[in-house]
């Protein structure tokens, strides 16, 4: 992905919180608006589409690249989460209009007097848990209590707490006017929207449409871990969602029937369902019959890779 | 408390969130710094001392007056909490230097589609619980998980969640540079400090010393509910704290002995102890022996009034 077009803009890389805030405040005092695209790195076309969305809305773009330990439980894949910082910068330089700042902190948590602490230690991925039992380490968490409960919240109990908290931190550090999130992480997007409303952040939260590979697989940094065979099986997710959507639009409004269709198709392809739910687009509460806008949400395992995807149905 | 000195400054009263933020941003763009003093109204000399403290640090002062339903449980005294808005404004006008803005919102919570909602409804104190079981009402809470557990957190389980959440909201609306809290609410002060650190608010949190009546009773809006007799009994709190402090400074470092002294004195005066603890000033963990800076914290009932008080011991 290396390239050297003359019009490529090299982003300023900022690793320090205070420097980041200083930059934002300087820009705001010049009347500039700032868009934030929070990421965990290993950027793909899905991320790029978020940046393009932000470009429509603000003068300046900050992309944060931070693999947030606070949203992984000890048994999850923090240690194997893919990363490629240099490649990410190349990809960002290729985006039309570029990005102004990459905010890339080593660590955003205060570990107090605990033995985990220190930036160098924290950089060793996998060794980190920012949840301390005692002492002066990080202990403040933002919880969106209803929306965080279902779907991904069931199988990943600390996930949304970690997401809402790190996004709060990023909001307070970057102080953007707009933040763009992918609708692929539908529940996350709704949680951040609700959090922004409930905590009175002066930030517009934008949900950006899912970007898919040519074969229909929703783009995800985790796709890189799929074997060729698993990847082929994983297409059952998008296929089953499309079929269910088609059926719903043709008049099948019974959620149970639609869910069964989806589950059967993914199971037959060799996937292991974590959840397949048809929920209200705002409350994320399961519906029995589709009478208003809903979203079909799926999480399924293919080998050791857990994938999520969803499709909105606006009938 | 009416007065009409020529040099009194009338504060601007702002009730709308967006207007409040607009004011702050306009001031900041002029290079002014803003101090916030969050209150629930019924202002007394303790509050005034917080404003004086803020005056030392910032160009402009915002006092928020908002009786936060989110920090009261249904069984607590939201409905009888005293208020006197006109008197509060008079008191603020008498403060040297005055205050610039009184932020006095009717309601800071979004009740979604629930039946509780609506500003007018919310104004009826006592009818309000902002914790909804379902629907689109407020559901985001900030929790400082370790510090919120002990002392007042034990007998008031939703209290600090409500405090941390409303303070987050006020911080996001007012966007101050400095916020001043009273050390009378010691646990609250430490929780806000920790929250600001953990969530990367760019706000300096100041703890201001307890202000006492001439007879030693810590100033509190709730003191007005004490009968003459109860008030006399309540002096046992400050008296016992002072004695325990004196004993500690003379070499009594056993927390158990000191606690017993305090408990006995308050019990004998007719108070009912909620808690009497000797804790580390930062972690708020109970200590058995005083070896480093601690604080004696007390909550006790006199009749139907629950009072809190504390004293730092720096040995």
UniProtKB/TrEMBL annotation, chains A, B:
<dbReference type="GO" id="GO:0005829">
    <property type="term" value="C:cytosol"/>
</dbReference>
<dbReference type="GO" id="GO:0015940">
    <property type="term" value="P:pantothenate biosynthetic process"/>
</dbReference>
<comment type="subunit">
    <text>Homodimer.</text>
</comment>
<keyword id="KW-0566">Pantothenate biosynthesis</keyword>
<comment type="similarity">
    <text>Belongs to the pantothenate synthetase family.</text>
</comment>
<dbReference type="InterPro" id="IPR042176">
    <property type="entry name" value="Pantoate_ligase_C"/>
</dbReference>
<keyword id="KW-0067">ATP-binding</keyword>
<dbReference type="GO" id="GO:0005524">
    <property type="term" value="F:ATP binding"/>
</dbReference>
<dbReference type="InterPro" id="IPR014729">
    <property type="entry name" value="Rossmann-like_a/b/a_fold"/>
</dbReference>
<dbReference type="GO" id="GO:0004592">
    <property type="term" value="F:pantoate-beta-alanine ligase activity"/>
</dbReference>
<dbReference type="InterPro" id="IPR003721">
    <property type="entry name" value="Pantoate_ligase"/>
</dbReference>
<protein>
    <recommendedName>
        <fullName>Pantoate--beta-alanine ligase</fullName>
        <ecNumber>6.3.2.1</ecNumber>
    </recommendedName>
</protein>
<keyword id="KW-0963">Cytoplasm</keyword>
<comment type="pathway">
    <text>Cofactor biosynthesis; (R)-pantothenate biosynthesis; (R)-pantothenate from (R)-pantoate and beta-alanine: step 1/1.</text>
</comment>
<keyword id="KW-0547">Nucleotide-binding</keyword>
<keyword id="KW-0436">Ligase</keyword>
<dbReference type="Pfam" id="PF02569">
    <property type="entry name" value="Pantoate_ligase"/>
</dbReference>
């Amino acid at each position: 992905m290396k390239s050297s077009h003359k019009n490529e803009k090299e982003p300023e890389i900022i690793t320090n919180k205070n420097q980041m805030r200083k930059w934002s405040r300087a820009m705001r005092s010049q009347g500039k608006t700032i868009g934030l695209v929070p990421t965990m790195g290993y950027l793909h076309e899905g991320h790029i589409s978020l940046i393009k969305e932000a470009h429509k809305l603000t003068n300046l773009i900050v992309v944060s690249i931070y693999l947030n330990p606070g949203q992984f439980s000890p048994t999850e894949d923090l240690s194997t989460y893919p990363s490629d910082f240099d490649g990410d910068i190349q990809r960002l330089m290729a985006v039309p209009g570029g990005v102004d700042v990459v905010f890339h902190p080593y660590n955003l948590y205060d570990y107090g007097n605990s033995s985990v602490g220190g930036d160098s230690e924290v950089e060793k991925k996998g060794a980190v848990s920012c949840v301390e039992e005692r002492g002066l380490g990080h202990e403040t968490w933002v919880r969106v209590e209803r929306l965080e409960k279902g779907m991904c919240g069931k199988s990943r109990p600390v996930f949304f707490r970690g997401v809402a908290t790190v996004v709060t931190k990023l909001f307070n550090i970057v102080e953007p006017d707009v933040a763009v999130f992918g609708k692929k992480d539908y529940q996350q997007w709704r949680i951040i929207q609700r959090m922004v409303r409930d905590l009175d952040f002066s930030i517009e939260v934008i949900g950006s449409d899912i970007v898919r590979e040519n074969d229909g697989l929703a783009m995800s940094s985790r796709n890189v871990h799929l074997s060729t065979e698993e990847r082929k099986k994983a297409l059952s997710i998008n296929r089953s969602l499309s079929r269910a959507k088609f059926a719903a639009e043709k008049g099948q409004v019974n959620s149970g029937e639609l869910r069964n269709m989806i589950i059967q198709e993914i199971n037959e392809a060799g996937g292991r369902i974590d959840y397949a739910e048809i929920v209200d687009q705002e409350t994320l509460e399961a519906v029995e019959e589709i009478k208003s806008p809903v979203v079909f949400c799926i999480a399924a395992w293919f080998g050791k890779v857990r994938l999520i995807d969803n499709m909105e149905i606006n009938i």
